[in-house]
Amino acid sequence: MSDFLPKYLHVVLQKKYHDKIAEIRIEGHTDSKPIKLSGDPYIDNMKLSQDRARNVLGFLRSQNYFINLQPAEKERLQYWLTANGLSYGRTVDKDYKISFDSKQPIDNGKSRRVEFRIVTTSEAIINEALKNINE
């Protein structure tokens, strides 16, 4: 993780991507084993997955690469970065395919994970392209 984050941030912070990224989601996932704290295992796992994502975000912010960023870059990341817990709604199989879609058995070890997902501004890009076509 310590090697990945500086490289990842170096790429996404390139000026050519500034208008193409709407959000960078840090998604926490859990396995399908129910946790029984409140009576609703899905919600209990939601808390665990949210904590997992939030801890990764905290780790990212504690790294020298982030600390040494220019204020404008930090501000951009603070705008883009979100920590999202997804409970066990998107467990994966042994091939890291979403088990709901693959209909394969859930691999609990691989399902406990954090993923970085970039949400693009594709809607704005498409609207701009359509505007240019209609002119």
Compile the SSE list and pairings.
Blueprint lengths: L3 H9 L8 E8 L12 H22 L1 H4 L3 H10 E5 L13 H4 L5 H4 L2 E7 L1 H13 L1
Parallel strand pairs: 1-2
Antiparallel strand pairs: 1-3
What does this structure look like?
The chain has 135 residues and is α+β, with helices and mostly antiparallel strands. It has helices at residues 4-12, 41-62, 64-67, 71-80, 99-102, 108-111, 122-134, and strands spanning 21-28, 81-85, 114-120. Helices cover 49% and strands 15% of the residues. It is globular, with a radius of gyration of 18 Å.
Question: Which features would summarize this protein structure in a list?
Answer:
135 residues, 60s Ribosomal Protein L30, Chain: A, three-stranded mixed β-sheet
Structural class category: alpha+beta
User: CATH topology, what is it called?
Assistant: 60s Ribosomal Protein L30, Chain: A
- The whole-number mean of residue pLDDT values reads 91
Query: What's the level 1 CATH class?
Result: Alpha Beta
Task: Give a concise summary.
The chain has 135 residues and is α+β, with helices and mostly antiparallel strands.
